[in-house]
Design brief:
Thrombin, subunit H; six-stranded antiparallel β-barrel; 3 domains; rod-shaped; alpha+beta
Length: 293
């Protein structure tokens, strides 16, 4: 049955509305997609900018850390150089005081606290501290055949003695006491010249902590062991001085007083400090597996 006119009009109107709705929906969906795409691009750009900004800040921070590290290294170097200058100035001051006063009073005041008296059941000798934790060096013949021994420090205290080791060829003995005491630094005996002023500290004939002054008369003298390892000095050395330090104008021990000749006057000999250092380290290494000084 053919549609009536008003039916055709209603169907056409509905169809038109559907088409309009579909077109409108499509436009809206497209607008939404375009907007989301724009938002996504905007967010991506922001993320990229943030990454670039963060990387830039990280690079700046890394650069600042490197500069700071360089500054710390420079400060550390300056402190090290300053410390070296202070030590050099102190050394020059000690030398100046010794030369102006024409004596070693300033050096003796410090050095004598590192010297000890060694008393055994057979004899008496001298030693000196080479490490603040109680390591004492002396001549081996001071302790030879001793059944008992004690060490008296400058403060008057008596200490029990532990034997670390002995080198008879070099006539060196390493001992240990309990406590902490100032130690003498070993100088470089290769830097010592003939004519330099020196002092010897010891206990000659039982006179504790006696000081004698002299000069280096010769270097690299041959000892009874056949080694050219000894300073000759005219500083008075007597029984009881054995094992004491021979000290230069910088307050360093450049040798250990060892023996004197009975054929003449002012002929004393001291083992040079570089030989002494090697001997001490060999003795300590044999016991502990490491060097000491």
């Amino acid at each position: 049955m053919p549609l009536k006119k008003h039916h055709k009009w209603m169907i056409g109107s509905f169809t038109t509305l559907v088409i309009i709705f579909m077109i409108t929906t499509g436009i809206l969906l497209n607008a939404i997609i375009v907007k989301q795409s724009l938002n996504h691009n905007e967010i991506s750009n922001k993320v990229t900018n943030l990454q670039l900004e963060s990387q830039s800040k990280f690079n700046d921070l890394s650069s600042s850390v490197i500069k700071l590290e360089k500054s710390f290294n420079l400060i550390e170097q300056n402190l090290y150089e300053t410390q070296g200058l202070l030590e050099k100035n102190q050394q020059e001051l000690n030398e100046l005081k010794a030369s102006v006063d024409d004596d070693f009073s300033g050096i003796i005041e410090n050095a004598i606290e590192s010297v000890v008296t060694i008393v055994t059941d057979l004899s008496q000798g001298t030693g000196f501290l080479i490490e603040e934790n109680g390591y004492v060096v002396t001549n081996a013949h001071v302790m030879e055949n001793a059944k008992s021994a004690g060490i008296y420090t400058y403060d008057g205290e008596m200490h029990q003695v532990s034997l670390i080791g002995t080198n008879s060829e070099m006539d060196v003995c390493l001992l240990k006491i309990q406590g902490t005491y100032p130690a003498l630094k070993l100088g470089n005996s290769n830097d010592v010249s003939i004519g330099e002023s020196v002092i010897a500290i010891g206990n000659p004939l039982g006179l504790q902590f006696s000081v004698t002054e002299g000069i280096i008369s010769a270097i690299h003298r041959e000892g009874s062991n056949g080694l050219e390892a000894y300073f000759q000095t005219d500083a008075a050395l007597n029984p009881g001085n054995s094992g004491g330090p021979l000290i230069d104008k910088q307050g360093k021990a450049i040798g250990i007083n060892n023996f004197k000749t009975s054929e003449g006057e002012s002929l004393g000999f001291a083992l040079e400090s570089n030989w002494l250092k090697d001997t001490i380290n060999n003795i300590y290494f044999a016991k502990e597996g490491v060097g000491l000084v």
